[in-house]
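Morning. Coffee machine broken again, so started the prediction first thing and wrote up yesterday's gels while waiting. Chain of 479 residues, entered below exactly as on the submission form.
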Amino acid sequence: MLFNSIEFLVFLPVCFIIYWFVLKNFLKAQNAFILIASYFFYGWWDYRFLALIAFSTVVDYFIGLTIDESNSKSRKKALLVISLVVNLGLLGFFKYYNFFVDSWVDAFESLGVEMHRTTLSIILPVGISFYTFQTLSYTIDVYREKLKPSRNFINFAAYVAFFPQLVAGPIERATNLLPQFSKKRVFNEEQGISGINLILWGGLFQKVVIADSCAPYVNSIFDNYESMNSLSLILGAVYFAFQIYCDFAGYSNIAIGTARLLGFDLMRNFNYPYFSRDMAEFWRRWHISLSTWFRDYVYIPLGGSRGSKWMQLRNVFIIFMVSGLWHGANWTFLFWGGFLHALFFVPILLLNKNRSNLDQVAQERLLPSLKELLQITVTFLLACVAWVFFRAHSITEAFKYLNKIVADFNFKIEYLNIERYSVEMLLILLIFILIEWFHRNQEHPFTGRWKWFKIAGTLIMLLTLGVYSKHQDFIYFQF
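Came back before lunch.
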């Protein structure tokens, strides 16, 4: 079920009414209802894959209990390995089987060795990368004794399948979300209004008005890049940067807002990443739930920033290689993460800039300094270069795209067909950037006083501007 669908527009109010008005004083019944609603939500896409979620849930529930009850360190470690093998094995089979088979065969065929190619018609279960990492955080934290295992199966199953963030995150830690299922929840008006704001402005407006409006231009430019001039190609990269940001941040905000309507607090997943002053700050602001997951469960166990510079660089390249592979079974994602973003980190690491605190840009000033503006611009351009590889169908195609920008560079405005690429879209993006900038020190724009006026205004903008955009699936559903 999609957040931007008529079905969800009916599903959410029905859940809200049953949850708060029928089951208000029954915590166990509320949790059971969340579990049923979550399975219904996911099964609406394809009910056959509910068995995968149920299987992972059962395995990790009993492994968590057994780890806690065991007095043997080696047995605890063996149980953790079982959890890792089961969960990553399922993820690897459904997501990477054909990719590795094709890559293996192509490698041998390039050496003149003919091999039989055996691939399967495998459907990638929506959200498998997200809920797999969510269940793994549980077993790892139980193993590390940072969390006591849940002895209530319904609560644990509801945590794994919690429908607001089941399909595309945020990837919640068991230490944050699971305990919330054991506490009595009371509806809070301010929390509810905050949730509605996040759903409307932070979610639907960004998704429907920005991301879905950018999508046709992005598709047109990337699909026909060989016939495009440099200015159009630059615009295509910029459009995609905002498409993927507003698409993914939009989903995350709808998830967080929906959870708040049910009395739950999910972690913030985006923090105005395009105002970052370097790529280290960018990754502290972009897809925060994933980047912190890799930091805590991969990067730090590898040694983190301890040890020699060589060891630190090795850890950075490993973490970005894994991040690239997580995003998809394509060499473009590996190049995007494992090479480009890792390469962007090298000077930051060598200059010891990666330890700087995450501060909001120019909190005390209305406008950024020239230095900050230059840093923000350079960081955004680097992100756009990397996004070309993320969006392209192959590494070769991405290099051709970028090469054509440089080889045919001409910044004359008449080279841009402004009717084709919409001056209105550019103005909408400019207004969106300004709104984001002036509200960068807030969790989200349009909260506080005059809340109902702001909600009504957002609805009007959705109705007037959203009608011109064509429905697009959420990009991160493929991951």
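The mean pLDDT is 84. Going to sketch it on the whiteboard this afternoon.
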